[in-house]
Amino acid sequence: EFLITPAQRAFWSFQPIRRVPIPKVSDSSWVISSIDAFVLSKLEAQQLKPVREADKQTLIRRASFDLIGLPPTQEEVDTFLQDSSSGAYAKVVDRLLASPRYGERWGRYWLDVARYSDDQLNSTHDEPYPNAFRYRNWGIQAFNEDMPYDLFIKAQIAGDQLEAVDESKLIPGLGF
């Protein structure tokens, strides 16, 4: 018989969502959003201070590596450095999220979790799985098209049973 103890029931992920008051911080000039106040309060509790703001060249390199796993081109860096508008960084992020490289980078993590492989890893000769690329490409496309997570999971379990506008968008999810 399985019993849930009070300590298990008190675990943070089982608690109902509640609004937490925004903490007071000593340097409110650093705080741009309420999330910053939470970060800064934890830093101050450890007698730490935020580092200086990254320069634009560092910022575009970080965004590019984080979102697509590749460095920005010199042309992309130059365009960003010349853009003095307040939405310059948002433009960079939007461009990177719209890049096919985004799905390739982040879809790879899902393929690792699903233990995807193009072949059977035979040490003496190649034994490819026929049409394995279809599942790989579908996973990448799902990330690039921002497929909702619940649909992403359902498509891999019962994509042929789901009512969809375009069934061909879900069927390859069954390929693995």
Large-scale geometry: extended
- Secondary structure class reads mainly alpha
Give the mean pLDDT.
91
Number of helices: 8
Report what the structure shows:
By secondary structure, the protein is mainly α. The chain has helices at residues 6-9, 34-45, 56-68, 74-82, 88-98, 100-113, 132-144, 149-158. Helix content is 49%, strand content 0%. Helix 3 (56-68) runs parallel beside helix 5 (88-98) and helix 6 (100-113) packs across helix 7 (132-144). It is extended and about 60 Å long.
Write the SSE topology.
Blueprint: H1 6-9, H2 34-45, H3 56-68, H4 74-82, H5 88-98, H6 100-113, H7 132-144, H8 149-158
Feature tags:
single chain, mainly alpha, about 180 residues
Brief write-up:
This protein has helices spanning 6-9, 34-45, 56-68, 74-82, 88-98, 100-113, 132-144, 149-158.
